[in-house]
Specification:
With 154 residues, the chain is an alpha+beta fold. Helix content is 45%, strand content 16%. The protein is built from five helices and four strands, in the order αβαβααββα. The chain has a four-stranded mixed β-sheet, with helices on both faces. Helix 2 (52-64) crosses helix 5. It is globular and about 75 Å long.
Length: 154
């Protein structure tokens, strides 16, 4: 009986840790939304399955994303669950994040709002942002990026 108890506890612990790590893996990504033009803002979520902040941030962000379905913002996720990999760097480059990626690679638990044209970070969403603050920050980032684009065109 003692052997069974010795085996069951570690097995339950391992299963619990695995379930915690994989919970909430439905990425906050922009796959459901397509733009008919280039995005002005990239909302890049740096995440991983083991990140406790991500487990709070990503569901909040997922609730806010539909409000911006027709706006010039693209939501992407850079997932570092399995560490830093070349495909994540390739994804960052493809999304126009090559300027900021080296500084933030491997870090998790936040979403950067980046002006696609300039590569400038306009804001950073963290777990301290509630849904209304996220909506406001994203809307403000879009307005700033649009203003930057309009001034570049003059």
């Amino acid at each position: 009986m003692k052997r069974v108890k010795t085996f069951i506890f570690p097995a339950v612990l391992v299963i619990g840790v695995a379930m915690f790590a994989l919970a909430g893996r439905d990425a906050a990504s922009g796959a459901d939304y397509t733009l008919d033009r280039e995005p002005e803002v990239i909302a890049a979520t740096f995440s991983s399955a083991w990140c406790s902040s991500c487990k709070i941030l990503k569901p909040r962000l997922a609730e806010v994303m539909p409000d911006f379905a027709d706006k010039p913002v693209k939501f992407v996720e850079l997932d570092f669950t399995f560490g830093e990999r070349g495909d994540i760097e390739d994804q960052a480059r493809a999304e126009g994040l090559e300027k900021i990626y080296p500084r933030f690679k491997g870090a998790t638990g936040f979403t950067l709002l980046v002006d696609r044209e300039t590569g400038e970070i306009l804001d950073s969403l963290t777990v301290s942002y509630d849904k209304n603050a996220m909506r406001s920050a994203i809307a403000q980032a879009i307005a700033i990026a649009a203003r930057n684009e309009a001034s570049d065109g003059d």
